[in-house]
Amino acid sequence: MVLATFISALLLAALASKIVRHWLMRKSLSSHMTNGLPPGPPRWPIVGNLLQLGQLPHRDLASFCEKYGPLVYLKLGNIDAITTNDPKIIHEILVSQDDVFASRPQTLAAVHLAYGCGDVALAPLGPHWKRMRRICMEHLLTTKRLESFSKHRSEEAQHLVKDVLGRAQGGRPINLREVLGAFSMNNVTRMLLGKQYFGSKSSGPQEAMEFMHITHELFWLLGVIYLGDYLPMWRWFDPYGCEKKMREVEKRVDDFHSKIIEEHRKAREYKVRREESDGDMDFVDVLLSLPGEDGKEHMDDVEIKALIQDMIAAATDTSAVTNEWAMAEVIKHPHILQKVQQELDSVVGPNRMVLESDLPHLNYLRCVVRETFRMHPAGPFLIPHESLRATTINGYHIPAKTRVFINTHGPVSYTHLDVYKRQVQFLLDLLKNVWVFDYLCHGPFVCYR
User: Fold this and answer.
1) Which CATH architecture group holds 132-300?
2) For the segment 168-195, what is each residue's pLDDT rounded down to a tens digit?
């Protein structure tokens, strides 16, 4: 009797679930047709499509694109969202309608970890963002400024080669991620902060490890799809302590940046007392010398910290991971490795180091790097965009304040063994096609906004 009741309850529950699901699908389809929205999966009340995203949301969103089409509409809690991995639609969003999708959503991670969205990468479009971007382009990322650090980059490249050679001659295994991570980190910190964190002239292993640990935690938290951004009630509970972790990392990052700025201020005061010239200025020195907003004598510390953080986040872990993937791919494809070596012998020769001036002439190597960016993007999504006003894409209505997830995990990212070899040759044939390169290398090479 009890077993029969239990089975009946299960059957009733299954039937009820099927009816509710069928109703939701019809309601979702009717809503899409009525509002002219792009197609998408059925939505649940309140949570929308959040329950359909697992621990690997980029794969879930890629599967939606395969099922519903190149442009998919989602309701994430109370937020409208679209996702795509189609090159034509990505071009429409990032280029044709750049003025519509030029802003960023104010996520909790951006608020806590980017100084209240006061940086360049995560700030919404507005006067503050334009001012910060102008500072970067006119004072930090100029050709003259970057060329002034070419000596540092050359020194770091020589240290890398000597380190790898020494380990190989001693029969010691080489951890590529560790070696390339130290190389990327030193290049960036010497330009930004005027110091090494790894190597014989480094600041010390303890400070280096602290710096790396903070950077990795920052990356992880900025990449999390936090439910509190879509369901405000979730923040009351925060069962996994995600927002608490953000506040902890926020304090540690701020303390680290405050220490850097204070060190530079003391160094500047010491030079003034001794009437010494500034000499080689790193990025922090440059920022400390600039006037602030509204007639202030200097930039606010918060603005300087936000820009430092952007530069570190953009150029450390991403570069090391991409270099590691490139090495893995050419090792898996000896024929490509041989062609790269032949090009290096032809352009550079066997008796000297590769110089930055050689890079424009290394076409095959450049194609290998760009194909690596395409096959192994540094992150599964580009930084989310947000529509400033309602618009139309492919005939579908896109509401204002819609969040845009451009998924790099999809048809443009192949995993078949022979594809890498074919695509390198394909890129070599299309070397003059700027848009193909811009799209396939949308990560580090193009900064759409």
Assistant:
1) Orthogonal Bundle (1.10)
2) 898 899 888 888 888 888 888 888 888 8
